[in-house]
């Protein structure tokens, strides 16, 4: 049953993406940029509905009161394709720094460009990165929310932390608060797999780390706060969803946490 539901969900997920991009293009490209953002947000909501009705996966978002006004950096854990779009309905005017190749995809790239996302050559250095930061500062000044995944790439639940120091440099240069987000969608939508598993999990938006800290102190604070809550959520999510097969990284981490508790 899980296989059939996964196939149906994946099919409808991509069909939903293509149909909305094509059918709603006239409004998207004629409306103001910010009003047009209602389409990606509604697309995210429709995906949540599909996942609940077809797969049986639900989630709750806690800590919305921690979201500050104006410009800030959102720093979520990154485990799945799910967390690349899932929080859009709760963000006012988000912006991503993304690899430039995505801008070349027909229609999708046009949608991305319409929202003034910031393309970057991942191998770029020097002047190119200076221009990227200049763009990021402009978007922050406009009150937008920059989404950055501190570990850079998707990591399985329970994996050892692998944070990139780049977020500390960006934090220093932009001089805005950083809002960490802990969650474990990868247990239900695993990376590089087509299976989707039913269950329930929490998304926790943590209090912002204020601007102006020393970059090294910020980096240590981010890791400490985010990993602490991630561990707590891992224990809770695994306990409340015994039907979900855990990846080896999660099994190992749960054993380590249990050993610490009993020592």
Automatic annotation (TrEMBL):
Kindly state which keywords UniProt assigns to this record, in alphabetical order: Acyltransferase, Membrane, Transferase, Transmembrane, Transmembrane helix
Write one Gene Ontology MF term.
1-acylglycerol-3-phosphate O-acyltransferase activity
One Pfam family from the record: Acyltransferase
Q: Where is the Phospholipid/glycerol acyltransferase domain?
A: 72-186
What is the top-level taxon of the source organism?
A: Bacteria
Task: Give the pathway annotation.
Answer: Lipid metabolism
Recorded hits in InterPro entries, A to Z, give: Plipid/glycerol_acylTrfase
Q: Which residue ranges run through the membrane?
A: 12-31
Any one Gene Ontology BP term: phosphatidic acid biosynthetic process
The record ties this protein, via PANTHER family, to:
1-ACYL-SN-GLYCEROL-3-PHOSPHATE ACYLTRANSFERASE
Q: What is this protein called?
A: Phospholipid/glycerol acyltransferase domain-containing protein
Species per Swiss-Prot/TrEMBL record? Ciceribacter selenitireducens ATCC BAA-1503
């Amino acid at each position: 049953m899980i296989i059939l539901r996964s196939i149906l969900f994946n099919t409808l997920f991509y069909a939903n993406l293509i149909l909305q991009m094509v059918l709603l293009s006239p409004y998207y490209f004629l409306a103001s940029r910010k009003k047009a953002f209602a389409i990606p947000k509604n697309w995210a909501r429709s995906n949540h509905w599909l996942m609940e009705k077809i797969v049986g996966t639900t989630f709750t978002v806690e800590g919305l009161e921690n979201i500050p006004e104006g410009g800030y950096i959102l720093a979520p854990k990154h485990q799945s394709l799910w967390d690349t779009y899932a929080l859009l309905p709760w963000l006012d005017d988000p912006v991503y720094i993304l690899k430039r190749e995505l801008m070349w995809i027909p229609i999708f790239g046009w949608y991305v460009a319409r929202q003034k996302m910031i393309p970057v050559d991942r191998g770029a250095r020097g002047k190119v990165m200076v221009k990227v930061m200049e763009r990021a500062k402009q978007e922050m000044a406009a009150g937008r929310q920059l989404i950055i995944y501190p570990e850079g790439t998707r990591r399985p639940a329970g994996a050892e932390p692998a944070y990139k120091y780049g977020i500390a440099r960006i934090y220093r240069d932009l001089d805005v608060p950083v809002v960490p987000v802990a969650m474990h969608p990868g247990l239900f939508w695993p990376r590089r797999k087509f299976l989707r598993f039913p269950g329930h999990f929490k998304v926790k938006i943590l209090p912002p780390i204020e601007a102006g800290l020393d970059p090294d102190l910020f980096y240590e604070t981010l890791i400490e706060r985010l990993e602490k809550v991630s561990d707590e959520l891992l224990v809770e999510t695994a306990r409340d969803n015994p039907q979900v097969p855990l990846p080896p990284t999660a099994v190992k981490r749960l054993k380590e946490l249990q050993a610490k508790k009993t020592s």
